[in-house]
Amino acid sequence: MANRVVVVGGGVVGCAIAAELAAAGISTTLVEARTIAAGVSGGSLAALVRHFAGPPEELPFVLDSTALWAELAPHLLAEVGIDVEFDICGHVRLTERDGDDSGDTPAHLERLVDAERAAGLDVSVIEASDIRALLPLVDTRVIRFASWCPGDAKINALLACRALAAAVCRRGGEVVIGEPVLEIEAKDHWRVTTPSRSFEADAVVLAAGPWTPNLLARLDEQAAAGLTPRRAQCCATAALPPVIGPVVSKASVGIGVGYAQLHQTRHGEILFNTVVPSTDPRLPGGELDATVDLAFLVTSARTLARLFPPLRSVRLLRSWAACESWTPDQRFLIGPASAHPGLFVAAGDSGTGFLRAPLIARLICDLVLGGTPDHDLASYAPGRVGLAGAPS
Ligand SMILES: Cc1cc2nc3c(=O)[nH]c(=O)nc-3n(C[C@H](O)[C@H](O)[C@H](O)COP(=O)(O)OP(=O)(O)OC[C@H]3O[C@@H](n4cnc5c(N)ncnc54)[C@H](O)[C@@H]3O)c2cc1C
For the whole model, what pTM was predicted? Predict the structure, then answer.
């Protein structure tokens, strides 16, 4: 069991882990290179959608994690006074009549919905009249079929990270920002060095998102090789009156090219994106290119206008890009890394890190405390077979 832990990375995953460790009474220091949510977390749509989150065998993980978000949201409001805007708004998943949703057939959707229902998710295939009732602005002529998951939710990405970081401090931990970790050394204990400080610890948790391989490479080459950065982009409209209630996604299987997602925030902005092919964002020196593509903007705006014709003339307020961390099997790395005891990894989000962060935090905390997590982590093990290699 570790008494002093350093968590590297102030995204949603690192903040959730540090908050959980601090709640367990462990002396916790969260070290962030820039500021809280400066990485992919601050650029996230932060939809908590369990339907189509992955193969049905992943459902116990995401069901437990979203249940934890539902507990955490009021708890954080009471503890640190931040409303993270957790809303159970439901999720409509659409397949377009003439889109690139190749491979997506009614039979495929029905099989998936049946499998997810059997695994405990409330989800169903819906008719055109139901789609209109849920999304009055949608053009049902372009929709082939749809499904509805009433318990799916959304959250405010920035507020969620800030609330978790505030909870770390409230629980007696330390949050250090503006200090990039330069070196992590294994001695009889761990030493974590930044430009102006060094921290001694019994355990270190690497939650540095797409930058994790930079820190991990010298400690566990095999685990580091499984992580590849991938650029994801997003747009926001100017604030509108409430016009879209649920999260909406449009997809064939998985979060590949052609996948689109949108929702309207409590403040009226519609956040939306469509995934387009993207180049390798790795720049010399270990930094990542977060430039927005014009092709992305055009494709995303066209998708929005095609699905919701009345939104054709809305004003685009801003757009941004961020790099996610991908693994070949699109599963996180969660667990101990390297030959040295006391080094843990929680990275490789593959586009679903908000959904999974609270449960990842609980599992890492169990491991740090020397307990046995109540989810089987074999398929998430850092350095697992088949991990190193090209991203899918
Ligand atoms: C457009 C978009 C839409 C998305 N939509 C969803 C969604 O709807 N639902 C969902 O679940 N997920 C979604 N995601 C994915 C989700 O945002 C990520 O999975 C999640 O934010 C990953 O969090 P993280 O903490 O692992 O990484 P990050 O947020 O990247 O955090 C890593 C942190 O480590 C810091 N760091 C890096 N190097 C160092 C160092 N040397 N020392 C100290 N700190 C360091 C970085 O500054 C950064 O703050 C989306 C992502 C994008 C971009």
Answer: 0.96
